[in-house]
Design a protein that fits this description.
Layout lengths: L3 H13 L4 H8 L4 H8 L7 H11 L3 H5 L9 E6 L4 H24 L19 H14 L10 H9 L1 E6 L6 E8 L2 E7 L4 H17 L8 E3 L8 H14 L2 H7 L7 H15 L3 H10 L5 H8 L11 H10 L7 H12 L5 H7 L4 H10 L9
Parallel strand pairs: 1-5, 2-4
Antiparallel strand pairs: 1-3, 3-4
Helix pairs in contact: 2-3, 6-16, 7-10, 9-10, 12-13, 13-14
Length: 377
């Protein structure tokens, strides 16, 4: 039986080395490139001798082709980051790929099925920002996110849309998060050390990319800002995210914004942002998009120190932020790991190594999510 994983990885390695299918056909001694095509698409098995030939001639270790606990060419990423060196981001992408591959492999082994249907938004690059905002409003309403949508967004993404949401600790503080698309799985990673408002905005922003990936595939790396930039797709994503987290009805009911001036406006901005669990900066631009603030006022307020940390003193804000830090990964992820260990699909030491945790850390992880520890612990 053919192994589609090996075929996909052979294709990835061939493309990295800028070889054609004809080049590989000659290397393997095949009569034509159709045999290579059949291997790459999983229709034909690569024999043991052919696999060893590929290892020797293409300069890749055997586990490059056979290790299920890595992503090689199967996943496409969109990273939200600020000033992260490309080499550092590339290294962390491999780490993130290993975590995602662990979930995919162990989930399959314990009987998890990929979703039959992928959800999507009816938006394109030609859509207006108002269209993206309306889609965000409808998403929040149809999924009953309530008066503080940020609190339930991750839960709804995992439960209703089958999108795996992982809270992670990246190797560089400038990594805000990422969306990752695999043939059978969608994943969003969020830096759990970010301030809550930034975490929630990144989550909603990456949700947009997951829901529009086919119509407008996101760039591999983008700047993590709440105001957009030159890239229209990112601006559409920000419009959607703002409306999901700050629906117009809730924002309008929070205050008579046009009547507020100076200190009263700043105080109400910060208080409302805290209640919605967003940043005051994001709320300022949402008010501007709803024409409750002028663009000139929005620019002036966004640059003000008075809304930094939503107006909280630095020390107090840091303590509050640390207290609200979410547990690593997600309960869904940890439940799959626990089942796999319990069923003997993977050892505790193996999974701890894959997740870059000690065995004691792994025990703490189960406890943090309220998941009974497997027998090995």
């Amino acid at each position: 039986m053919a192994n589609p994983l090996i075929g996909q990885r052979l294709k990835t390695l061939r493309e990295e080395k800028k070889l054609s299918q004809d080049d590989l056909a000659r290397l393997f001694g095949f009569k034509d490139r159709q045999t290579v095509s059949a291997i790459e698409t999983g229709e034909r098995r690569l024999s043991a001798d052919e696999l060893l030939l590929a290892v020797r001639e293409l300069g890749a270790p055997l586990d490059y082709f056979t290790d299920p606990f890595r992503l090689v060419g199967e996943g496409r990423f969109n990273w939200r980051q600020s000033n992260v060196p490309p080499a550092v981001l590339g290294a962390y992408e491999r780490v993130a790929g290993q975590i995602i591959a662990a979930f995919r492999t162990l989930g399959t082994e314990v009987g998890e099925k990929p979703p039959l249907v992928r959800h999507s938004l009816r938006l394109t690059k030609n859509s207006r920002f108002e269209d993206a905002a309306e889609a965000g409003e409808r998403f929040a309403a149809e999924h009953t996110l309530g008066d503080v949508p940020a609190q339930r967004l991750a839960e709804v993404m995992e439960r209703d849309l089958s999108i795996l949401v992982l809270m992670v600790t990246p190797s560089h503080a400038g990594v805000s998060g990422a969306a990752c698309r695999l043939p059978e799985l969608d994943v969003v990673l969020i830096n759990r050390d970010e301030v809550p408002g930034r975490r929630h905005f990144d989550l909603a922003h990456e949700l947009f990319h997951i829901l529009t990936w086919d119509a407008m595939p996101p760039v591999h790396v983008e700047d993590a800002t709440e105001t957009g930039g030159a890239n229209r797709v990112e601006q559409l994503a920000n419009s959607f995210a703002s409306a999901v987290l700050m629906p117009a009805r809730i924002v309008r009911e929070a205050a008579d914004w046009r009547s507020l001036r100076e200190d009263a406006l700043i105080a109400r901005l910060n208080a409302t942002a805290d209640r919605l669990e967003v940043t005051s900066s994001a709320l300022v631009w949402r008010l501007a998009s709803l024409e409750l603030l002028t663009k000139a006022d929005a620019r002036a307020i966004a640059a003000s120190e008075a809304i930094r940390n939503n107006g909280h003193p630095t020390g107090l804000f840091a303590d509050t932020r640390a207290a609200g830090r979410p547990a690593l990964f997600s309960k869904r992820f940890v439940e799959i790991v626990a089942r796999a260990v319990e069923e003997g699909r993977v050892s505790i030491r193996k999974i701890a190594g894959l997740l870059n945790l000690s065995v004691d850390d792994l025990g703490d992880l189960f406890a943090a999510h309220g998941v009974p520890a497997p027998y090995e612990l």
